[in-house]
Protein: NADH-ubiquinone oxidoreductase 24 kDa subunit, mitochondrial
Amino acid sequence: MFRYIQKSIKPFGLKSVRYSSIISVHRNHELDNPNIPFEFSAENLKRAEEIITKYPPQYKKGACMPLLDLGQRQLGFTSISVMNYVAKMLDMPPMRVYEVATFYTMYNRKPMGKYNLQICTTTPCQLCGSDDIMEAVHKTLGIKPGETTKDGLFTFQEVECLGACVNAPMMGVNDDYFEDLTGDKTVELLKQLQNGKELSELKAGPLSGRESCEPYSGAKVLLGDKPTDIRQFTRSDL
Structure:
């Protein structure tokens, strides 16, 4: 339907061979074809209408990205029916919506597992041991990047920087970040989810004991109970 030049990427480590056609070419199948009806639930329709009101009427197409995200959250992935529905709601040519959905990697163009595991392997995470996290996920779940477990519980993705570099290595699970990971902690996290624990029951953030992104040796600034009187450290004529 919308085909670009196919280009392979040489596999590295656990990476599987990927082609640009994975995200730029739509092929109908039983879970994703235009004949599958889609519309927002009553709750999401209200949210969509509120989102659209944030834009001038002549620029309501600016709501394309948040509406696609809303549709993905409802269905689980951005299907062709979701894209067509958003295009109709915003009076956009469907192709314009397809372009958005295939450009941004936040939109998943195939059915996903209940838990979307995104492991960052950009430089800071790799230097801090992201290879161990990749290996732990691969061995525990038996899948490679781009694959979903047979029970539909996990989808495994290797991604670029997710913005938690100071707490590397890290893994995004749906909307939550689990940071300061080790291979063992990753396995423990996956086992809890496999055993029926909901994501909301797990403590997200650093798993090393850090509260946030302070040094491992402890906080170094803003330690007093009262703000520092800057007059003690500057000239009076300043």
